[in-house]
Request: fold
Amino acid sequence: MTPRLLTAGDNVVDCYPDLGEMFPGGNTVNVAVHAQRNGASAAYLGVLGTDEAGDLLRKALADEGVDTSLTRTAPGPNAFAVVRVVDGNRVFEDADVGISRFTVTEEDLRKVADADLVHTGECSMLEDDLGRLAGAARILSFDFSERPWDYVVEYAHHASIAILSAASTEEDPAALARRVAQFGPGTVVVTQGASGATMLVNGRVLQAPAGTGPVVDTLGAGDAFIARLLVGIMRGEESQLLLSAATSYATKTCAEYGAFGYRADLPQPFPPVSVAG
Reply:
């Protein structure tokens, strides 16, 4: 049976001034697309703008076969981020949320309840709705990325699966995973960039190295990892093999610019007028 994933929250166009191009992205969009590519039936809940960036995201989601029946359109500019690539690593310079903020509706929650697993994260601006999402979802996955510890403490109890990044810290990933698990998540995963990933599941600590292959741009690699991981969890794959498969898949996505392709010329003038709020 095909696993059903629903992702809720942020979308963005990643703008590369040095290339003069933009790419569709955002944690929950990237996870939906990569989950679809890995055999899941993925749906995306979020809000797109009416500009060229919004059009690019709409086309990419449709072309990838992601269900957009819950995807809204609002008048105004789509969210964007400005990205530079330094020695293969993505560096964010500027960002604007555009019209992407939204509130989860009762209709959304009914769709959430139908999914096998729901994923959102710290960029989605859905903290006020996390309790409702967790109550409706069979399994809720949450990407904490590199948020500070007090943020993790506040929201970890909502998540069945908690995902964190420790690529830029020296903290022991297994110890970090155990600390997070004390707040309720049954599965805690810590990504470590080029050092691979650590997973705590059913009290067991598992580790896997990063995959091998050319690295052009690391943007979206963590999201690709999450997608492969969640698909495997829904399928009941053995945890150690799944962790290795997820790190290998993430590395493969680093061989090209952007999170999953679909490059388009940057609109001019750039950057657009700020609409942050």
Observations:
- The first strand starts at residue 4 and ends at 8.
- Residues 119 and 141 are 5 Å apart (CA to CA).
- The chain has eight helices and 14 strands.
- The mean pLDDT is 94.
